[in-house]
Amino acid sequence: MDNVRHDGVNETDTVRHDGVNETDGVFHDGVNETDGVFYDGVNETDGVRYDGVNETDGVFHDGVNETDSVRHDGVNETHNGRHDGVNETDNVRHDGVNETDNVLHDGVNETDSVRHDGVNETHNVRHDGVNETDNVRHDGVNETDNVLHDGVNETDNVRHDGVNETDNVLHDGVNETDDVRYDGVNETDDVRYDGVNETDDVRHDGVNETDNVRHDGVNETDNVLHDWVNETDNVRHNGVNKMAIIELLSLP
Length: 252
Known about the structure:
Chromatin_remod_comp_subunit
């Protein structure tokens, strides 16, 4: 498995999965990929490349029912909608969940009148995750009027992430404190991350995690290590309904 970079679902010997700045024309993801298929992993077509991180020339992102000309994110996107979230332009629609024609969803340097995120957002609600203001609601999943979801430089009483969070739970992922539960950037050993059905002992994430850190945040079990970026030899990756006994490093 020396040439295979993580993921863990039906990967082949020559296919590296992951999704962040991989080299050698190796594509990522890890769900039912074929030799000529570029990453992501959900009903992708042969000519469509997805993922969403600094992709090049005519590269498509995502992985759910995308068409050849559509760059997206992956949930009920329209024919002309480009979704993704990395350095998109002003007229580019991002995210991928029930977006409208004039709605800009994404999360990177969006403007005051731009709505971000893409999940059941209201007209005056900005969702996103980058330098949002105190009265701005972020994220986009079952948020309440006074709940701030986001992920960048949030305050102690701000709730982040947006998935089944409790009043005292801080989810996010950027420069959070030791007692804050977050997501996936520069987290510490005792920090819990992600925000999706996590348990007290489960740490999720996916960026610069340590050997004993469990990552990802999707139906993980106590002994499952999930992630996607810069994983170590003893770290198991992918994070999608994996059983504790699965060891990716045992793959050919």
